[in-house]
Amino acid sequence: MRASQSVIPGSDEELMARRAASLGPAYRLLYNDPVHFVRGSGVHLYDSAGEEYLDAYNNVPCIGHSHPAVANAVSEQLRLINTNTRYLQDGVVDYAEELLATFPPELGNVMFTCTGSEANDLAVRVANFVTGNSGLIITENAYHGTTAVMAGVSPSLGPGVPRPANVRLIPAPDRYMLAVSDDELREYMLAHVRAAVDDLVASGYGVSALILDTLFSSDGILPNPVSWIAPAAEIVRGEGGLFIADEVQAGFGRLGAGMWGFTRHGVSADIVTMGKSMGNGYPVAAAVFRPELLEEFGPTVRYFNTFGGSSAAISAAAAVLHTIKNEDLVAHSKVLGYQIRTEVQSLASSDPRIGCVRGQGLALGVAFVSQEGTRVPDPALASRVVNAMREKHVLISASGADGNVLKIRPPLVFGREDGARLVEVLAEVLDATRD
Q1: Under a CB-based contact definition with an 8 Å cutoff, are residues 373 and 179 in contact?
Q2: What are phi and psi of 184, to 5 degrees?
Q3: DSSP 63
Q4: Do 108 and 138 contact (CB within 8 A), yes or no?
Q5: What PANTHER family does UniProt report for this protein, alphabetically (predicted)?
Q6: Closest of 315, 328, 349 to residue 72, by C-alpha
Q7: Considering its fold, how many domains does the chain have in total?
Q8: What are the tens digits of pLDDT across the range 89-127?
Q9: What DSSP character marks residue 53?
Q10: How far apart are CA 387 and CA 397, in angstroms?
Q11: Which element (helix H / strand E) includes 47?
Q12: What's the burial of 345, exposed, middle or buried (CB within 10 Å: 0-12/13-18/19+)?
């Protein structure tokens, strides 16, 4: 495929045609009018024309785009050595100790990977090995990765990725759509977990693990209530299974209630996974385990990841962790997130198209409905808002099984003035999209 002769050489249209020809159809661009970014700094991105955009969407560069602490740490390490964890190195051990200190004491071993998909894949591999079972329980629109195993437990990838026979779905804990109280939601979710466990046992798979993104980001940003995950984990453990907390979205202080989302739920995790926000986008991720889970797996299974936890990757990760601590970004996420959420709720009070606003820390979901009081999802409106905000140079996206929930998830270094701009532009777009 070649770009049409009518397309201007060097234009974004030509670049899109070349991209389609070389990368193929699997790669999809954000927004109806895709953006060509050439530079980033903090919470700002700059396109090929030099125009500035406010990034309220990208969680991976958690301490901001092109952060000098990360850039300097990686470049200095690359000039020195960049090798793997099969050699003795101070850096990886120092970082492992610092990272593990942010977890409850029962979680004492960490294994490094390059991506969150690999971390989740490793977590499931260990769970299957330890339990002798293969049954997995996930939420209806979960996303846990793109390896062959993890794609099978990521319904949000769409119907083109079949669900394996050993996977059972439970509903998303969407209190608004279910129109229930916290207590009713708790019993509803536990009933579905019990049913999934019973079905896996009856089908001969047994229960390997319950895997939950503790923010339920792909399900529509559902951090509350926090009363059901702990008893759900105990139901799973009653059949020999494990609880895996997927912190790729929620971790590293995003929710403003400690470093990790699962601790908000008062649940003890057997395995915790995290993704590339660990290195601010540099390819480093990890899974953290209760040490007893690895006692037999480690000596028995020949697992290694050549550049998971490489010297440069660990330098990036250490820079991120130190910045989060030194700049008190966990507390910042809590305070600023509450302020933004309160202001968006104020917009919702006068706009019946907004069914509910929910969130925690710097993770916010705004659910659109087609008619007041109906709770019928309105994905078309969500798409209009997302694309209209892009035109006004503020970047967000949409989430949920129906795609009707605005997903607002900025870098942790988002400032008060950035939050004010986000809310102001959202208000303008909501006014402009009224019929």
Answers
A1: no
A2: -65, -40
A3: T
A4: no
A5: ALANINE--GLYOXYLATE AMINOTRANSFERASE 2-LIKE, PTHR45688
A6: 315
A7: 2
A8: 999 999 999 999 999 999 999 999 999 999 999 999 999
A9: E
A10: 9
A11: strand 44-47
A12: middle
In this structure, the answer to whether residues 223 and 273 fall within a common structural domain is: yes
**pLDDT tens per residue, range 146-162:** 999 999 999 999 999 99
pTM: 0.95
What span, in angstroms and rounded, lies between the C-alpha atoms of 355 and 185?
18
Q: Could you list the beta-strand ranges (E) of 280-417.
A: 285-289, 354-359, 364-368, 394-395, 397-399, 405-408
Full residue range of the structural domain in which residue 231 is found = 68-326
CATH number for the domain including 44? Answer: 3.90.1150.10
Q: Which residue in the block uniquely carries the two structure tokens 């008190």?
A: 328
Mean pLDDT of the chain: 95
DSSP string, 74-142: HHHHHHH----TTS--HHHHHHHHHHHTTS-TT--EEEEESSHHHHHHHHHHHHHHHHS---EEEETT-
The pLDDT assigned to 1 comes to 37
CA pair distance 40, 31, nearest whole angstrom = 18
Phi, psi torsion values for 374, nearest 5 degrees = -85, -25
Residue 9: the pLDDT is: 75
